[in-house]
């Protein structure tokens, strides 16, 4: 059975309520895609990345389940204040990740389904454990990115940093930060690292992080994190592996300290 995100088809009240909530949130976040940075339009591929990230989060956190049908491209374009071409690129990205399938004449459907026989790792991973995993692998990601990143990868990282520098609220920054670190993983050109980082972002989408990020991601802290992101980008651009590792290690140390401070 399939379900339309914007309308019911006889499914349960719980499913309908979830989809209604998702659709409303999509409209709110869509305004951010089109109007942040003082109303200045972002490059189409950057907007497509942001749309794909928001949709992916809703798929991975279960707001959109296996078999759900996404709204038509036109509706998504209106909700996100983006062109249909930008939306189409976002859907193409989700399809490449195995999250959705596009069926001619029928629409775009969620095809991602967690293994029912396994415990969702996000349910049993604490925010501190998440930071510890990131601290273990991200410095090596930086080292590999120095060696393997292409000009296209560097351009994507630059756009991601600019995206983070253009927002001030915790939710928008968190989404942009997830995208930046995913772009860093992709710049390694190691498919296993990319897959691991998708899992990390899945855990970051859990409500455990949602419940504390507003305490951590103040405007002052966002500014400090952005300075570190910019320093990392500079080291990557110079192909300075030791500096990139040092900056990213310090970045993760700060994230850990901020997390511990929020709990005190």
What key phrases describe this protein's structure?
264 residues, mainly alpha, Arc Repressor Mutant, subunit A, Four Helix Bundle (Hemerythrin (Met), subunit A), 2 domains, two-stranded parallel sheet, two-stranded antiparallel sheet, globular
> How are strands sequenced across the largest beta sheet?
1-2
Q: Report the biggest beta sheet as strand number plus sense, adding barrel if it closes.
A: 2 strands, parallel
Residue stretches low in confidence (pLDDT < 50, at least 5 long) are 1-42
CATH homologous superfamily designation of the largest domain: GntR ligand-binding domain-like
* Termini separation: 47 Å
Task: Note the overall shape.
Answer: globular
Provide the helix percentage.
Answer: over 70%
Q: Domains counted in the coordinates: how many? A: 2
Secondary structural class: mainly alpha
Q: What oligomeric arrangement do these chains adopt?
A: single chain
Q: What's the number of helices?
A: 12
Gross CATH architecture of the largest domain = Up-down Bundle
Q: How big is the Rg? A: 18 Å
Number of strands: 4
CATH class category name of the largest domain: Mainly Alpha
Task: Summarize the helix and strand pattern as letters.
Answer: EHHEHHEEHHHHHHHH
């Amino acid at each position: 059975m399939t379900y339309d995100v914007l309308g019911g088809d006889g499914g349960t009240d719980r499913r309908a309520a979830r989809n209604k909530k998702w659709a409303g949130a999509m409209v709110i976040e869509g305004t951010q895609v089109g109007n942040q940075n003082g109303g200045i339009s972002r490059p189409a591929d950057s907007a497509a990345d942001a749309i794909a990230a928001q949709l992916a989060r809703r798929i991975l956190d279960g707001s959109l389940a296996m078999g759900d049908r996404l709204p038509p491209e036109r509706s998504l374009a209106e909700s996100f204040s983006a062109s249909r071409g930008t939306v189409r690129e976002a859907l193409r990205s989700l399809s490449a990740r195995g999250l959705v399938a596009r069926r001619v004449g029928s629409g775009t459907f969620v095809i991602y389904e967690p293994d029912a026989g396994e415990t969702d790792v996000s349910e049993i991973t604490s925010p501190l454990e998440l930071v510890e995993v990131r601290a273990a692998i991200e410095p090596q990601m930086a080292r590999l990115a120095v060696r393997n990143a292409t000009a296209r990868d560097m351009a994507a990282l630059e756009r991601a940093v600019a995206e983070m520098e253009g927002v001030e609220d915790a939710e928008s920054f968190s989404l942009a930060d997830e995208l930046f670190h995913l772009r860093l993983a992709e710049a390694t050109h190691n498919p296993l690292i990319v897959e691991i980082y998708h899992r990390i972002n899945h855990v970051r989408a859990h409500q455990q992080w949602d419940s504390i990020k507003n305490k951590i991601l103040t405007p002052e802290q966002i500014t400090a994190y952005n300075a570190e992101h910019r320093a990392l980008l500079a080291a990557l651009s110079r192909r300075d592996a030791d500096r990139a590792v040092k900056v990213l290690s310090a970045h993760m140390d700060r994230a850990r300290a901020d997390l511990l401070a929020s709990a005190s």
